[in-house]
Design a protein that fits this description.
The chain is an alpha+beta fold and about 110 residues long. The chain has two domains: about 1-40 and about 80-105, no CATH class; about 45-75, no CATH class. The protein has helices at about 5-15, 65-70; strands spanning about 30-35, 40, 80-90, 95-100. Strands 1, 2, 3 and 4 form a four-stranded antiparallel beta sheet that branches. Strand 3 and strand 4 (about 95-100) form a beta hairpin. It binds zinc ion (ZN). Zinc ion (ZN) binds next to loops. Zinc ion (ZN) binds near residues 88 and 90.
Length: about 110
Amino acid sequence: MLLSQDAVNTVVEHLRRFQTSACPVCRTSEWTVSKVLFALPEYHARPVWNFKPSPSVTTPENPMSAGLKALGGAGSPDEVFPVVPITCATCGYVYFLSAVALGLVSR
Ligand SMILES: [Zn+2]
């Protein structure tokens, strides 16, 4: 999801409240705030590549999408963790801020 300029400004203002400027990898201090909101998917003990959708959820048109839908299971949708990536402009080190904690999305 694309963030509005106001949302990006919210992230920048949030970061300015803290003295966290040095990258832990290269020690430079130029960061880029993503303009796109991402979501980390919930971990599943069973790897996706071993997943076999039940015949009841597999459609002949697109068996892969049916399998992906089934990963959440009936009545138990996958959880996602919405994040804003912050990337070091020099080395590419990335860390995430919680979009919920930033107030960009609600729970
Ligand atoms: Zn760096």
